[in-house]
Automatic annotation (TrEMBL):
Enzyme Commission number, as recorded: 3.2.1.21, 3.2.1.46
Residues in coiled coil: none
Annotated InterPro entries: GH, GH_1_N_CS, Glyco_hydro_1
Name the UniProt record assigns to this protein: Cytosolic beta-glucosidase
A GO term for molecular function: beta-glucosidase activity
Species the sequence originates in: Chrysodeixis includens (Soybean looper)
Family: Belongs to the glycosyl hydrolase 1 family. Klotho subfamily.
GO aspect biological process, one term: carbohydrate catabolic process
Record's catalysed reaction(s): beta-D-galactosyl-(1<->1)-sphing-4-enine + H2O = sphing-4-enine + D-galactose; a beta-D-xylosyl-(1<->1')-N-acylsphing-4-enine + cholesterol = cholesteryl 3-beta-D-xyloside + an N-acylsphing-4-enine; a beta-D-galactosyl-(1<->1')-N-acylsphing-4-enine + H2O = an N-acylsphing-4-enine + D-galactose; beta-D-glucosyl-(1<->1)-sphing-4-enine + H2O = sphing-4-enine + D-glucose
PANTHER family noted in UniProt: GLYCOSYL HYDROLASE, LP05116P
Taxonomic path: Eukaryota, Metazoa, Ecdysozoa, Arthropoda, Hexapoda
UniProt entry keywords in alphabetical sequence: Glycosidase, Hydrolase, Signal
Amino acid sequence: SDGFTDTKKRKFPENFLFGAATSAYQVEGGWDADDKGKSIWDTFLHDHPEKIVDGRNGDVGPDSYHNWRRDVEMLRELGVDFYRFSISWPRVLPTGFENKINEKGFKYYDDLIDELLKYSIQPMVTLYHFDLPQELQDLGGWTNPLSVTWFEEYARIVFKRYADKVKYWITINQPNTICIDGYGSEAMAPGINAMDSGAYECVKNVLLAHAKAYDLYQKEFKKKFEGNVGISIAVNWYDPINNSTENAEAVEKARAFQLGLYLDPIYSKDGDFPVLVRQIVDKKSKEQGYSASRLPKLSPQEIKLLKGSVDFLGMNHYTTFLVKPSQQEYQSPSFEDDVGVEYSQGEQWKPAKSVWLKSAPYGLYKACIYLNLNYDYPNIIITEHGWSSGPGLRDNSRVDNMRGYFGALLLAMEDATQVKGYTAWSLMDNVEWTAGTSERFGLYEVDFESENKTRKARLSALVYKNIIETREVDLEWKPKNLKIHIS
Ligand code: PNW
């Protein structure tokens, strides 16, 4: 049987961890409250309001800066084991530098963490989720090799403050979004297209920043506090559109540029960037008239530092892409031109509100098996998985998607994938970057027009609660009404 239609009951183990996630810029609001510094997302969306689909930026958003008590109440209603949220670097270090600590900003996280612990909900803290302090961007941001040290010093301050209370740490969220979308296109902040040299330089610096923070935790905190440190990487699945040979080559390139570029330095036997990426970018750089490759080198010491620099892989998985060789000429240099493939998605796959998001649960299963075979059964926590819809509480499409992917996940675990936990993206509707609030990812709906940014449980919140309680996915289960309470 294929596992997707068979009737065998599969259960999540008792020690499996369930959680929900948000990120600072997307939910906090309070963009200039209590001496917070500006982040690149404040600048980006203030300078380019036309880039936001519905005009709603993160200045206020769900206003978790003031509504955090309600947020913890929602987590208690769901019955989750942990809450994944991120710390806004410019809120706690307004200039980005270690010498100016903003106690008022830190107080917000002190309160949130204490409230979580009061109810036995583990905080899982992301140190960086896209919101770089603007002052550091003015110095080149992640394209400046000094960014490695800036991040390390920031990490040390946060580790020191919370190591006794926080046992799950994620250094960096989605290097591909930070670097390829942020420094290789105008899609994400800082919106600088620097494919000439900035984007891959960013990949190197972000990975090294992660590895330095990991190393720091190992040396200064691990013995005493016994926490776990990982990195969250976008691990969507890439399949050939059909079995022809040219598609096999195309998919190999897609996997190398989208997955291997970030996973190989940490998990492969020899470390370093994938050979295929090295060959392609070196060759193209020469043809394009650069004297050095646009892909920077990693020194033997850097390779060593990166290898094995995680306690777990944070896997962000949303969807699957079908790959074939590109039929068009891309601008050169560009990331698209380097990879040289085109993406599509199954016509029969259910579409979400976001154009890039379609439901294909089998892809999660395949991605897990791929990680097992290529990287030797890594320890995984799914740190994001979710679905976008329009407003409304009866989110049947989110429920269907969630149940489908849980089926695939249980099957992958039956086949020895080492998944220790799952995180729903997102606890509540939030500011979906340039999509504003036009794409809703929340288990809870947020009324952005209301003064208190009222949150209401969607159907999916009740279904998730039931799955957490019973440890199994009952396709027939329905709540009597949409009321949710703390059990
Ligand atoms: C993630 N894709 O981004 C981010 O970590 C979140 O901040 C964001 O709100 C969430 O997913 C929803 O978009 C992604 O194209 C962006 O497959 C794009 C993709 C996946 C994740």
